[in-house]
Amino acid sequence: MNSKKATRRTALAAGLALALGLGVAAQASAGAPRSVSGSPDDNITRIADFYGAYIDAESDLDNGGGKLTSELRSYYLTPAYLKKLTAWEAKNHADGVLQAQNTPMSWKVTDNGTAGHTEAAVTLTWGGGDTTKLIVDMTPTTHKIIHIGTKGIGGK
Asked: What is the reported pTM?
């Protein structure tokens, strides 16, 4: 490979790291492999998968959400909660999954404990660096989201 291509690839990798918010540590090791793991039986993984796919779909320059976000909602949310979310959106004129009118730049999902269901803290990071914390509750058996809000159904 010629040096011009190598320089472009290095610049592309560094730009991608910056765009993904990987920070200085990742830039120093731009060539180092990363890994992400999960399990379909783990609710924290499922919530992270949902938010990752949902934000990807919302950020898609070609489609900007649309059909895919609707399909993701139908797959990951209970039908009863989907109705509540739709009502919340009509009242608040915002996306109920993100509880905002914009799409965040990144997200992080952290286990927030269980009490008959899984509760996860989802931290959304916006373009200016501001963050929003949402609590997402999921059933342990059907692995479906039953609530998204600033507090969980357990009051946390």
From this structure: 0.76
